[in-house]
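The freezer alarm interrupted the setup, so I double-checked each line after restarting. Inputs confirmed:
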Amino acid sequence: SAVISQKPSRDICQRGTSLTIQCQVDSQVTMMFWYRQQPGQSLTLIATANQGSEATYESGFVIDKFPISRPNLTFSTLTVSNMSPEDSSIYLCSVGHRGYEQYFGPGTRLTVT
Amino acid sequence: ELKVEQNPLFLSMQEGKNYTIYCNYSTTSDRLYWYRQDPGKSLESLFVLLSNGAVKQEGRLMASLDTKARLSTLHITAAVHDLSATYFCAVDMYRETSGSRLTFGEGTQLTVNP
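Predicted 3D structure, all chains:
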């Protein structure tokens, strides 16, 4: 399995600000994914990030709001821009492994006041 | 658009009893995952089912996949308190050109009572 770390683990932010979440993997992976889990809800895929190409966003998510970087095969960042209370969620990165497994990071718990 | 439905959404059961969680999905796929999530924690991978008829077992949990019926089940045998958690199924619309894309069910919150 892959070992995934995320920073920060949690944060409380003010409305209108931005937060960048980091995801680090202990091995090189082709595909990294960003999910959002709103309070008491299931997970929703935000975007897929492949190294060397633009991220692919799911319906309802746009690059201006959730810019993603993928500078190398072990690292990615997700920025939540111009935050509102509705952005309060857990943000999780995950990685594909061996073509058919997906492992999740510990998540970043974001509260927007 | 792929829809993934789990039932029940809430399950309260007694220790020692058996029960099954169902996961139905709306579009053909032969990749399905089951995850466990404890409160305040991330997701733990339980099972990866990759073909029709796949059955996997780990301890008191057994998962199966019927791609023709678009149905997966997670069967709990002789439940114990430690199994209390939220269980998610996720269907992967995998394509070689675009890779994986998981769509999650709503989750089943399981409580096992002594």
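Quick read of the result. Residues 4 and 77 of chain B are 24 Å apart (CA to CA).
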